[in-house]
Amino acid sequence: MTPSLDDHAGSRIAHSRKVRKLTRRELADLSHVSYSTLTKVEQGAIPASPSVLGALARALMIPVTQLTGQPYLEELRRDQLDGLIQQIRECLNLYDLGSDSDLTPRPTGQLEEQADRLCSLVRATHIKQVAIELPGLIAEATTAAHRRPIDQNWRLLAGAYRTAYDVTTKLGFQDLCMVALDRMDWAAQRASDPVIGGMRQYLRALAYLRASDYRTGEQLIKIGLQRLELAEPGRERDVVTGQIHLGAAVLAGRGKDETRAEGHLGEAQRLADLTGPAEKVHWLSFGPANVGAHRMSVLAELDKYPEAVGTAAGLSFPDDWPPSRLAHHHTELAQAQLWTGNMDDAFTNLRRARMLAPQQTRYSPTVRETYIALESAKRRTPETLNSFGAWLGM
């Protein structure tokens, strides 16, 4: 069944509230979300921001994904991605079963080339192609690591698990992305690689950010930075450290701690000045451009939407910046523009995100909530907006 325009976070919030037998006033008091904001969100008049979703989910004692509606199963079936996710789920369960006697893995160098290509495809947002190839790569890498347990093979396997995290996160399978991160840690420990270990804590912190557990996310950031102190000094360590500070800045912004957010942004900027553009180091997209994009994100998290929009106007991005990261930036900018009343600009940025990264954009809850609010704001919906909604499946 195709989702209707009434199927949005606000309607799910209202349903969950009624199941808990709470009035709007009671839920507003429990969540510390203003009554006015809660009313408008439930009506679909304004988008449910990540911080509002998190506060309401905690008050209702349910996961955030229950309010976002993720994963979007009908769309996954339509795009023939649901079966591929099941294959990824199955291959993640092979980690401790030893080598497969029926499998002859390719040489490690060839497997590393494929792993690197899949990372590149994720950044280009060819998610379906990655999902098709990834289970086979994980199976070969698992057998290779068990048959010849050297650091190089364990790092390869950890990287494959990281790609599984990327795919499952983008498609809204938060439970599965946490499994992938556990497998990544298991392999990283066997590789004795503090950089991969630190990066895993960063990715885990982002998962807790999406789940609106900011305190745990901040603890994981500290652990990640501590692990990186064990790594050899150099550009690789600086890049991962800088990216962790960017994640910490967003966490602080979501927690409305502007001073701490600015401190993390300042440290990330210092490291970006040292490393320069480093988008392909562990495929983290780190560099001066990413610091600027995160500064806009943090301002939006702090509810400083006009300042966020103004900051975005002064940003420029390299021609080869990863489409996945640029599309995410346009998505966040669209929501900030919506909050400032720039409806046309917001829709323009949603369309830019779709053009850059169609598969990623289709499965973004931020895109869906922004679209619902745009549609609600228009008495007569333009044909282009209708077409965008049909493409989302709404």
CATH architecture of the largest domain: Alpha Horseshoe
Contiguous low-pLDDT stretches (5 residues minimum) are none
Q: Describe the largest sheet.
A: none
Number of strands: 0
What oligomeric state do these chains adopt? single chain
CATH topology description of the largest domain: Serine Threonine Protein Phosphatase 5, Tetratricopeptide repeat
CATH class of the largest domain: Mainly Alpha
Overview of the structural elements:
The chain has 394 residues and is mainly alpha-helical. The protein has 4 domains: 1-69, lambda repressor-like DNA-binding domains (434 Repressor (Amino-terminal Domain), Orthogonal Bundle), CATH 1.10.260.40; 70-192, no CATH class; 194-320, Serine Threonine Protein Phosphatase 5, Tetratricopeptide repeat (Alpha Horseshoe); 322-394, no CATH class. 73% of the residues lie in helices and 0% in strands. It is built from 22 helices and no strands. The chain has helices at 9-19, 24-31, 35-43, 50-60, 64-68, 73-78, 82-92, 108-123, 127-147, 151-170, 174-191, 194-210, 214-228, 235-254, 258-275, 288-301, 305-313, 323-339, 343-356, 358-362, 365-377, 383-392. Helix 13 (214-228) packs antiparallel against helix 14 (235-254) and helix 16 (288-301) packs antiparallel against helix 17 (305-313). The chain is globular. The termini are close together. The model has no long low-confidence stretch (mean pLDDT 92).
